[in-house]
Structure formats: C-alpha cells, structure tokens
C-alpha cells in the first residue's frame, strides 16, 4: 500500500514516491499515463479547497463539492479532447449563488423546526401546568368535603342534643306522672280485696244461719 512506500524508500535509500493515496483515485485511473501527475495535483488542489470551505462555512452544503467535481471532470476532458474548461472564478460564482439559495432553504427549515419545537415545548408546559392545577383543585375538593362533614356532624350533634334533652324531659315527666297511676292501681286492688272479704263474710254468715236452723 501507498503509506508504506515512503518509509520503505527512506529505509532503503531509494527513490521516494511521487504520489500518495490520491494516486489510487478513479479520476487518476481514467487519465492517460502522461497526464496522471497533472490530474493528481489538480485533484489535490480541489480537495484542499473543499476541505477549507467545509471548515469555515456556517451551514455545510454539497454545492461546492459538486462544482469542484465538475471541474475535475472538465479537466480530464480537456486532457483527452482539448476542450477548454471553465474558469475557476466562474465556477465559484455559480457555486456561491446556488449555495446561498440552499443555505436560505436550510435556515428556513431550521427555523420551522425550531418553531415547532418551541410550540411543542409550550404545549407540554401548558399541559403540565393544567395537570398541576387539576391536582390542586382535586386536593382542595378532597379537603372541603371533610370540613363539611365535620360541620355536619357538629350540627347533627347540636340538633340531637335538644332532642335528647326533650326526650329526657319527657321521660322525667312520665316518671313523675307514673306514681299516681300506681297509687290508683293499688287503691283499686285494695277495694277489690275489701269487697271479696265482705262477700266471704256474708257467705260465712249465711252458712252459720243455715247450720243453726238445721240444729233447731
């Protein structure tokens, strides 16, 4: 391979190679033997220009590379047919005009992408804010019913207290009224017992009278 040619030539003190890896390019292979050196130098020149453009351009494009490739093709045709190629100045002007249009289109696309990204980010933030608000409302709603329940419980307790007091008062009144009823019952029972005793006495008297009459 070509990278080993130079160290080998230096070691053996032989002739150093005239060309490097670029000598194996297809452009040089298509050229005649007498033109291989010239086309290789020309190709190396265009490669250095392309590398500098790629290094210092803000938006990399393939316009300059295509134009430089066309120049190499035109140079090969010139070596074979003698047709004069275009001048480098003309080619670079055309490349600058096309590159400006391409760069403008690329920037437009980048701006659109940036706008879309910002819109997505804005929507995402709005969605997060809405979700946070919903969560806060849900927490507030969860807390309010508890408070209301507590209030309701307190109100029920307050309402039940008068009812209980009323029931207690009624029970007390019933208890107060109960003794007279019991007294009445006791009095009725006593009257019934007296009547029964009187009837028993009368029956005894009748029996005694009947016995006395029989004895006579």
Account of the protein in words:
With 216 residues, the chain is mainly α. It has a domain at 5-105: Serum Albumin, Chain A, Domain 1 (Orthogonal Bundle), CATH 1.10.246. It contains 5 helices and no strands. The chain has helices at residues 5-12, 26-30, 36-56, 63-81, 88-215. α3 (36-56) runs antiparallel to α4 and α4 packs antiparallel against α5. The longest helix has 128 residues, at 88-215. The protein starts with a helix and ends with a helix. The relative contact order is 0.04.
Biggest sheet record: none
CATH topology of the domain at 5-105: Serum Albumin, Chain A, Domain 1
Straight-line distance between termini: 178 Å
Helix/sheet category: mainly alpha
Low-confidence stretches: none
Number of helices: 5
Overall radius of gyration: 62 Å
Strand content: under 5%
CATH architecture of the domain at 5-105: Orthogonal Bundle
Number of strands: 0
Q: In a few lines, what is going on in this structure?
A:
The chain has 216 residues and is mainly alpha-helical.
Secondary-structure blueprint:
Layout: H1 5-12, H2 26-30, H3 36-56, H4 63-81, H5 88-215
Helix pairs in contact: 3-4, 4-5
Search tags:
mainly alpha, Nop_C, single chain, 216 residues, Serum Albumin, Chain A, Domain 1
């Amino acid at each position: 391979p070509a990278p080993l040619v130079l160290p080998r030539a230096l070691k053996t003190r032989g002739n150093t190679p005239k060309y490097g890896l670029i000598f194996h390019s297809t452009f040089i292979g298509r050229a005649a033997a007498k033109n291989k050196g010239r086309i290789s130098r020309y190709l190396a020149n265009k490669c250095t220009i392309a590398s500098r453009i790629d290094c210092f351009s803000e938006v990399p494009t393939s316009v300059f590379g295509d134009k430089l490739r066309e120049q190499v093709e035109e140079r090969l045709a010139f070596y074979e047919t003698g047709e004069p190629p275009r001048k480098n100045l003309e080619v670079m002007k055309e490349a600058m005009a096309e590159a400006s249009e391409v760069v403008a289109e690329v920037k437009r696309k980048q701006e659109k992408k940036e706008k879309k990204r910002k819109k997505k980010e804005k929507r995402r933030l709005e969605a997060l804010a809405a979700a946070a608000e919903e969560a806060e409302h849900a927490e507030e709603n969860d807390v309010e019913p508890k408070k209301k329940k507590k209030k309701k419980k307190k109100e029920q307790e307050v309402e039940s207290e008068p009812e209980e007091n009323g029931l207690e008062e009624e029970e007390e009144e019933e208890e107060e009224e109960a003794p007279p009823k019991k007294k009445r019952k006791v009095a009725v029972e006593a009257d019934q017992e007296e009547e029964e005793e009187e009837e028993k006495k009368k029956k005894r008297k009748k029996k005694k009278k009947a016995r006395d009459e029989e004895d006579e």
